[in-house]
Amino acid sequence: MKSSSLAVGLGVLGVIFIIIAVLYAIGVLQILTSTTSGPHYKHAVLFAVLAVASFVAANFARPKTA
User: Fold this and answer.
1) Exposed, middle or buried: residue 24 (CB in 10 Å: 0-12, 13-18, 19+)?
2) Fewer beta carbons below 10 Å: N end or C end of the chain?
3) What pLDDT digit, counting tens, does each position of 14-46 carry?
4) Is residue 38 within 8 Å of residue 28, measured between CB atoms?
5) Rounded CA gap, 56 and 64, in Å?
6) Which H or E run contains 4?
7) C-beta neighbour count of 38 within 10 angstroms
8) From CA 44, how far away is CA 48, in angstroms rounded?
9) pTM (2 decimals)?
10) What is the CB neighbour count within 10 angstroms for residue 44?
11) DSSP state letters, 12-55
């Protein structure tokens, strides 16, 4: 099942994950966690890994040209 819309969706999801990772790393999204003690680097790393996984999945989902 290779479709360009799925690949674009996964690419957009990857960009969103990168934005969330950066916001966690600089401490903006600390309001969403149980502690408010500054940046949450574990969350940032998690979202960075999710972004990479989304981009890899987008690469596999895109239709290949000759």
Assistant:
1) buried
2) C
3) 999 999 999 888 887 766 656 666 677 888 999
4) no
5) 14
6) helix 4-26
7) 9
8) 6
9) 0.81
10) 19
11) HHHHHHHHHHHHHHHTGGGGGSS--SS--HHHHHHHHHHHHHHH
